[in-house]
Specification:
By secondary structure, this protein is α+β, with helices and mostly antiparallel strands. Helices cover 44% and strands 12% of the residues. Bound molecules: zinc ion.
């Protein structure tokens, strides 16, 4: 880094996760030895709503981090923020713009990078938790069951048809093989060299006999 004065860092924080952001920020500051979290927050952290310009100060961030579920009677501002809304009643902004002014002993860039990683892991865990129970009884699950039953029915019907039409079933029924009785077959070449006659026995039925079993294969 150069010797130039550090510039304030700023970032947009989704109001849906602003309470979690405040908690992680305070926790990260408290982990640093020799740093008083409230002093750092007072000196270096403030935020504002880009729509209504409502301003949030370090003390507010600490209070938001400290209270799990702020009651609307004691602090309507914190209550609305914890619910994911702008602190100003009626404002529909979805995020706040946070600014981190330089504070001696605090490396905002490193601290915010660690914060992002922690919040990302939290969001991922929450998404996995939300998705798991929904998958078991969902409509796609029932549809898959119906498709499986339908496919099984089709297979059974195909097997039944196969058996009825005399198909082979391995180890249960071998297909019968037939060969023509040589005595009833025309001699080789005979049919091509001799003029065609229509003998009386043209329609004589040929006899077939079952071929001997072909033995082990
Ligand atoms: Zn606002």
């Amino acid at each position: 880094m150069s010797d130039a004065a550090p510039v304030p860092l700023s970032r947009s924080v989704d109001l849906q996760s602003v309470a979690a952001f405040a908690r992680e920020l305070v926790a990260a500051l408290r982990q640093r030895p020799g740093v008083e979290a409230l002093n750092v927050l007072r000196a270096g952290v403030h935020a504002h709503c880009p729509q209504c310009q409502f301003r949030l100060f370090g003390e507010d961030v600490l209070a938001l981090a400290a209270s799990q579920a702020p009651a609307p009677e004691t602090s309507p501002k914190l209550h609305r923020l914890a619910q994911g809304y702008c602190a100003r009643q009626g404002c529909e902004s979805r995020f706040y713009e946070f600014t981190f002014d330089p504070v001696p002993g605090v490396d905002w860039e490193t601290l915010l990078a660690a914060l992002d990683a922690a919040l990302g892991a939290q969001a991922e865990a929450a998404a996995t938790e939300a998705a798991a129970p929904a998958a078991t009884a969902s409509a796609p699950g029932r549809t898959r069951l119906r498709v499986a039953v339908g496919l099984a029915l089709i297979v059974v019907l195909l097997v039944v048809r196969h058996v009825l039409t005399g198909g082979a079933i391995p180890w249960i029924r071998e297909p019968r093989r037939f060969t023509a009785d040589p005595a009833t077959m025309p001699k080789l070449g005979q049919t091509n060299t001799e003029p065609f006659r229509a003998p009386a026995d043209t329609n004589r039925p040929r006899t077939f006999r079952a071929a001997p079993p072909s033995g082990p294969r």
